[in-house]
Specification:
seven-stranded mixed β-sheet; 2 domains; 14 strands; Aspartate Aminotransferase, domain 1; alpha/beta; three-stranded antiparallel β-sheet; binds pyridoxal-5'-phosphate; about 400 residues; Aspartate Aminotransferase, domain 2
């Protein structure tokens, strides 16, 4: 019998859906996948060339557990230049994706029974990571317009609160949290002596006027309790390379490094060398991808907001739309009843051949997530199919 801990763990719904899409495609069905959480672009050529060069130069051995010094120095420069935060290289750890840094951070910060405040809707993995650390996820819904609700966060704080987690720009809502709301959260963390984890993996994908703000930049008091997590995955279309990082006070980084040293060791050596090229030479590639995403966001928003039963907040960042679809609940197509978001997602998969993720995966059961990281041609076709299927509901 497997352990109680793992029995209580829900598998990643987004990864399970990927497997389902692969299965349907293998069976010959035409599926447009608007479910995945990754850029559709290829990794910029200079990054690929840099990793190739590194391999040929023999940079294929173990590295220091927290990562090669030139990369940690490049990350420190990036955080100073773009995020206005000072970190020394020994306050940075490079990990196998942001995911591994995050999972380890909860292990390092939490004792069993500690509470972690997670504003919802939230990314699928946080809750399971917190549980795996023996801690308790405390889910706090954001405000109606997807803004952080600092009042609700304050009300959720107890003597057991250990961490407040922030994810901006947000997956799945696309909200970019304002400086004012982040300042309120920072004040709460200082007043109640808790850590902040800030997941900034979508920072480069912003389309509105609200800038990305790194909460650790506010003051030394905030810096000393904050772990800033970021990655190469979304910004540089490097999801499969598995490289991300965390920056924070030395004690936290040492703790994360201790776990990493006994589990995955370092992030892949030649990927680390390539990541330096990403940070220092690929700004123009990122901007081109950002512009393409913005155009797609505008197109998709216009189509989705007109669908009967859908209510779609306008997202300022990331590459997701997260409409409330409760207006479709109770409707039917033939003998099929749309009872909830998974039923709607199932109907759209079968009827329209479009894969979407039900909001339950993000602790928001009345919504569904559509990813617009796909070619314009596929997005147009997907929306035509979705519209036709939704119009059949009555
Ligand atoms: C909010 C958020 N954080 C972290 C990650 C994981 O990033 P990585 O691929 O670098 O592990 C994802 C990926 O979907 C994400 O959406």
């Amino acid at each position: 019998m497997i352990s109680d801990r793992i029995q209580q763990m829900a598998p990643s719904q987004t990864l399970e859906l990927n497997a389902k899409v692969a299965e349907l495609r293998a069976a010959g069905k035409s599926i447009i996948a608007l479910n995945s959480g990754e850029p559709d672009f290829n990794t910029p050529a200079p990054i690929i060339e840099a990793s190739h060069r590194a391999m040929l130069e023999g940079k294929t051995k173990y590295t220091q557990t927290p990562g090669i010094l030139p990369l940690r120095e490049a990350i420190a420069r990036k955080l100073r230049r773009e995020n206005k935060i000072e970190y020394a290289p020994n306050e940075i750890i490079v990990s196998t994706g942001a995911k591994f840094a995050l999972a380890n951070a909860f292990q390092v910060m939490c004792n069993p029974g500690d509470e972690v405040i997670i504003p919802t809707p939230c990314w699928v993995s946080y809750v399971e990571m917190v549980k795996l650390a023996g801690a308790i996820p405390v889910l706090v819904p954001v405000a109606e317009d997807n803004r952080l609700d600092a009042g609700a966060i304050e009300r959720a704080i107890t003597p057991k609160t250990r961490v407040i987690l922030i994810n901006t720009p947000n997956n799945p809502t696309g909200a970019v949290y304002t400086e004012e709301s982040l300042r309120r959260v920072a004040e709460l963390a200082v007043a109640h002596d808790c850590y902040i984890i800030t997941d900034e993996v979508y920072e480069k994908l912003i389309y509105g006027t609200t800038p990305h703000i790194s909460i650790a930049s506010f003051s030394p008091e905030v810096w000393e309790r904050t772990l800033t997590v970021n990655a190469f995955s979304k910004a540089y279309a490097m999801t499969g390379w598995r490289i991300g990082y965390a920056a924070g006070p030395r004690e936290l980084i040492k703790g994360i490094s201790a776990i990493q040293g006994h589990t995955t060791s370092n992030s892949t050596s030649f990927v680390q060398w390539a990541a330096i090229t990403a940070l220092e030479e690929c700004g123009a590639y990122v901007e081109n991808m950002r512009r393409a995403f913005e155009e797609r966001r505008d197109y998709m928003f216009e189509r989705v907001r007109k669908l009967p039963g859908f209510r779609c907040p306008f997202p300022d960042g990331a590459f997701y739309l997260f409409p409330d679809v409760s207006g479709t609940f109770g409707k039917r197509a033939g003998s099929r009843v749309i009872t909830d978001a998974p039923a709607l997602a199932g109907y759209l998969l079968d009827e329209a051949g479009v894969a979407l993720v039900p909001g339950n995966a993000f602790e928001a059961p009345s919504a569904i997530r559509l990813t617009y990281s796909n070619s314009m041609e596929n997005l147009i076709e997907a929306m035509d199919r979705i519209e036709a299927a939704v119009l059949k509901l009555n």
